[in-house]
């Protein structure tokens, strides 16, 4: 993925019109990033995929669950190559494994706000993680002017609040993810042979778009290059702010992108 950035640093003392508007009930909900590491080659994964789809329906009052389905590639050698898999997501999961002190990676694994991990089909542990995430301070993250451009590009303006005393961080990274709103496969081989699998928010790319410094906010116009398979699909643009070292999530948002909104 190629990315072109037009940076503007917004100091805390400046008026930020978008961030100062009264919050709607939806925006008042606490955003919680839910990452599911999964694979179509894993027979234990479909129940976790189904749970993620249920969470995407926003069943918890006061929280906005921002879901990501990240398909790892280390199951591809046992008979079925997951068409949505990529080594990048395996590597991202590996970094979480190191940070959580795990012996290795596994599927299905759910990671909530970069702070809790557990078997991705365990709804009880998911509920506990969501309750914990609700109490964590978050900074505002706002997307505006989101549209598809010519030559399969996606454009948006991104703006965040500042790193302050609540989160005790000196710096954090800002990431943009592009996901298929919906995807499915008829699996012909491997552990799920004969099954039709459905997925939500299937991530196609995650790219770092910048960093936020202590006591500063962040504003940027971004242009993301879409892969050809995205052309006729409804997408989601997800932006999240994560502590260094692939740490906790301190802000997130999601914006749907219509399949045919050509600028």
Q: What can you see in these coordinates?
A:
The chain is built from 5 helices and 12 strands. With 263 residues, the protein is of the alpha+beta class. The strands form 3 sheets. A 4-stranded antiparallel beta sheet has the order 1-10-7-6, with no helix packed on it. Strand 2 (30-38), helix 3 (45-55) and strand 3 form a beta-alpha-beta unit. The longest helix is centred in the middle third of the chain and has 14 residues, at 87-100. It starts with a strand and ends in a 6-residue tail after the last strand.
Brief synopsis:
This protein is of the alpha+beta class and about 260 residues long. The protein has helices spanning about 15-20, 25-30, 45-55, 85-100, 125-135; strands at about 5-10, 30-40, 65-70, 110, 115-120, 140-150, 155-160, 170-185, 195-215, 215-225, 235-245, 250-255.
Which keywords apply here?
alpha+beta, 4-stranded mixed β-sheet, 43% strand, 263 residues, 5 helices, globular, 4-stranded antiparallel β-sheet, 17% helix
How do the helices and strands line up, and which of them pair or pack?
Layout: E1 3-11, H1 17-20, H2 25-28, E2 30-38, H3 45-55, E3 63-71, H4 87-100, E4 109-112, E5 116-119, H5 123-134, E6 141-149, E7 153-160, E8 171-186, E9 196-213, E10 216-225, E11 235-243, E12 249-257
Parallel strand pairs: 2-3
Antiparallel strand pairs: 1-10, 2-4, 4-5, 6-7, 7-10, 8-9, 8-11, 11-12
């Amino acid at each position: 993925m190629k990315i072109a950035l037009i940076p503007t640093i917004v100091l805390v003392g400046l008026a930020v019109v978008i961030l100062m508007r009264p919050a709607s009930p939806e925006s008042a909900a606490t955003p919680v990033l839910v990452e599911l590491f999964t694979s179509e080659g894993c027979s234990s994964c479909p129940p976790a995929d189904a749970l993620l789809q249920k969470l995407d329906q926003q069943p918890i009052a006061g929280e906005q669950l921002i879901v990501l389905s990240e398909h790892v590639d280390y199951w591809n050698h046992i008979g079925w190559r997951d068409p949505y898999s990529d080594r990048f997501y395996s590597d991202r999961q590996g970094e979480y494994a190191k940070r959580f002190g795990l012996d290795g990676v596994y599927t299905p694994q759910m990671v909530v706000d970069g702070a809790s991990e557990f078997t991705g089909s365990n709804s009880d542990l998911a509920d506990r993680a969501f309750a914990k995430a609700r109490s964590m301070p978050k900074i505002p993250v706002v997307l505006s002017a989101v549209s598809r451009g010519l030559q399969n590009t996606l454009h948006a303006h991104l703006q965040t609040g500042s790193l302050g005393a609540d989160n005790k961080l000196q710096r954090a990274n800002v990431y943009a993810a592009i996901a298929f709103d919906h995807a499915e496969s008829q699996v012909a081989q491997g552990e799920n042979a004969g099954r039709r699998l459905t997925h939500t928010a299937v991530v196609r790319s995650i790219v770092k778009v910048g960093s936020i410094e202590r006591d500063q906010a962040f504003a940027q116009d971004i242009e993301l290059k879409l892969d050809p398979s995205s052309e006729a699909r409804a997408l989601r643009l997800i932006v999240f702010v994560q502590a260094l070292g692939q740490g906790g999530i301190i802000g997130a948002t999601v914006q749907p992108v219509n399949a045919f909104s050509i600028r």
